[in-house]
Task: structure prediction
Amino acid sequence: MNIAVSSTAISAVSSVSTDNVGIGWPAVIDGCHDLLAVALGTNSMEDTFERACRQADRKAASRPQDPRILHARRLLGDDISLERAYGVIMRDRPAPEAMVDALVFSLRRGVKELGRPDTLRRLSVLNEAQLKAVCHRVQSFNLAIATPWSPEEVSALILKWKEYARR
Result:
């Protein structure tokens, strides 16, 4: 079968084939498909949509995966219960700022507060960054309100946190 190719078809082929993004066999197959569609006049909207979807899939596959998204996808697995997924998600969250403020407020009474259950519960949910902020805050108490903590008292706070953190 002989097919006449005009200059408009050649320019259409060159413009279609330069639109392809990607390398490898999938891109070559898409390019051949485009050439045949232009040559035979069977270029339809469905073919264009499918090609765009394949290009988007290849582009997405070439990007590095975000570890948080991969972690969330693992939690969506059939072998993980809703309660377990909820627990993992809630465990990975930092403590609310109000809880940190309540902890600092209770620590104004001194190091003896580290023996109280409410203080230990609040201390146990802090992450490292929040613990560091609490340590700075207790060392910089205003003398009119509370006595600033010494480095030894801050060390006791850190030891209690290590003992009770994320039980």
In short: The chain is about 65% helix and 0% strand.
